[in-house]
Amino acid sequence: RTGQFTHFKHQSGDSTSLSNDIVKVIFEDSKGRFWLGTVGGGLNLFDRTTEKFTSFVNNPKNPNSISNNVVQCIFEDNNGILWISTYGGGLNRFDPERNTFDHFKEDDGLSHNSLYDILPDDNGNLWISTSRGLTKFNPETEVFRNYDTREGLQGEDFNSGAHFRSETGEMFFGGTNGFNSFHPDSIRDNPHV
């Protein structure tokens, strides 16, 4: 401590320190737990009482570990499940009570494994910005619907941190060629496609 600010960083040899110094996202869940997503160090749970960290990193030998160590966004659903977008590892569903991850990738229907931001709609779907358009994901059915420039998106690639949901449910996602706005209820899928 240097006075008014407390500085947390990775300490080599200390597994209870922050796993990586590049922190991409900080999120407080409904139980008051602090989660940090890093660039290269996976997901961290911060205990504000002890000032110690628990790290969740990719382990190729453990299919229940996080899929990738570059965490872009963290979102909590109404069931207390964390949805974590990664850059290169797709979407992760994390149950904080079991400490296990389920993965969703291109092979499961995701448009791309490099994801940015997550916004929920009023119907329980998650809207995810990616490096290849927008994806709507239904967590109940585990079905993906992908959208690209043919539907009017600003471009294929979006930017991390450029997302907003208004009080009316309208969504905004920013990318490399401007931004898109839409209300999820106005997006009608063609059932014949």
What do these coordinates show?
- With 193 residues, the protein is mainly β.
- The protein has one domain (23-186): 7 Propeller (Methylamine Dehydrogenase, Chain H), CATH 2.130.10.10.
- The chain has strands at residues 23-28, 34-38, 43-47, 52-56, 71-76, 82-86, 91-95, 100-104, 115-120, 126-130, 133-138, 143-147, 158-165, 171-175, 178-182.
Topology, number of strands:
15
Q: How many domain modules?
A: 1
Neighbour order of strands in the largest sheet:
1-2-3-4
CATH architecture: 7 Propeller
Shape: globular
Low-confidence stretches: none
Strand content: 35-45%
Give the SSE layout:
Layout: E1 23-28, E2 34-38, E3 43-47, E4 52-56, E5 71-76, E6 82-86, E7 91-95, E8 100-104, E9 115-120, E10 126-130, E11 133-138, E12 143-147, E13 158-165, E14 171-175, E15 178-182
Antiparallel strand pairs: 1-2, 2-3, 3-4, 5-6, 6-7, 7-8, 9-10, 10-11, 11-12, 13-14, 14-15
